[in-house]
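We both want to read discrete structure tokens more fluently, so let's practise on a single case. Once you have written the record down, we can walk along the chain together.
***
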Amino acid sequence: MNVASHKWQSGAQRKKIRRARLDSLLLPLNTLTVDCGGGGIKSAILDRQGAVISKSIRTPVAYPFTPDDLLAIIEQQIRQHQLPFKRITVGMPGIIRRGVVTHTPHYIRQGGPHTDIDQSLEAAWNGLQLARNLSAHFSVPCKVLNDAEVAAYAVIRGVGNELVLTLGTGLGCAFFVAGDLSAHLEISHAPFRTGKTFDEVLGQKSRMLLGDTAWSEEVFAALQALWPVFRWDQLYLGGGNTPLITVDVQTKINHFAQTTAGQGSIIFIDNSAGTTGGVQAWY
């Protein structure tokens, strides 16, 4: 990723950085939130209270997809937003630790999700100091988290054990205890059905092959399998494919929650949570 990271910078570069820092002191505390999915990159700008003050912009991902491609999309969307911001929140699929991409499952593949891994893409993405690079490039603080974690910040109440699952290109997962984010676990890559992971059974590709009815039953089976692992007090289901869960299975899920899990109904959350959680993620 092209960022101003050279040890020596010209006087003009230093002046530009100082000017950007001065401008940031005068701007409202808006947050640019970027939701990175396997099929598209979405962004919006939120005000201090977390209200969306721009239109939501989505750009399809064209594979192969590099870190420079992501940067180009973010820059393009910023120009379209035409609003100032003082910080950036990015939700990225995979394992993100302290702003570093430890592993991301989709962008390392030549043709997108569930295709062959490309070694050059894998080297470009895994280990990428994404938060540091974006912060240097845009001269504002940047926080990079797993995309399900950003969505979770939009909805959690900060009470008890709260599990947020998102259904989209794959399965996203975030777990909070008394409002504190637990260490991220890539449940999506754990074994589920014989020879298949949760991602492979619940992801978009599987839904297209199975159809919504059979896929919905797999979602219910997955929740039953995950209950002994998390024993949540409240479960939230979100992501772009959650509205496609059939009514019959939604009824089963709520009955399961009320009887086995001993809680109220499952809370179904809007897919916009992937961007609207971008402010609360800072607190």
